[in-house]
Structures are given as structure tokens and as C-alpha cells.
Design goal:
Elements: H1 2-16, H2 19-64
Length: 65
């Protein structure tokens, strides 16, 4: 069983190439996940008030026409 795991590890490592490239990809993935979490938090926190602002602006624009 360990020989099979070793062959799998060698195959995956050779496909990834440089291990630094793999580490960089992981770092970028973590940064992207952080950006998504921050964006979702901001949308959740400010979504209702922003929607109300757009409704008010739409009503004002409707009165001007």
C-alpha cells in the first residue's frame, strides 16, 4: 500500500512542478477566500440600507420626470 501512495505522491509532485508555485497558488486561494468573506459580510451588513437608498433615489427621480 505504501508503494502505491509513494507513486501517487511522485506523480502529483511531478505534475505540480515547482513546490513554490503550489505554495503561491495556495496563498492566492486563501487571499481570494478572505476577499469573498469580507465582501459577503459587507453586502450582508450594508445591503438593506443600500437598497433603501436606491429606492429613495428612484422615487426622487420619478418625481423629477
Amino acid at each position: 500500500m505504501s508503494a502505491l501512495l509513494m507513486r501517487l505522491h511522485v506523480a502529483v509532485a511531478s505534475r505540480l512542478g515547482d513546490t513554490r508555485r503550489g505554495a503561491t497558488a495556495v496563498e492566492y486561494g486563501l487571499m481570494l477566500a478572505l476577499v469573498v468573506v469580507v465582501a459577503m459580510t459587507a453586502i450582508t451588513a450594508f445591503g438593506g440600507s443600500t437598497g433603501n437608498l436606491y429606492t429613495k433615489l428612484g422615487n426622487i427621480a420619478g418625481l423629477l420626470h
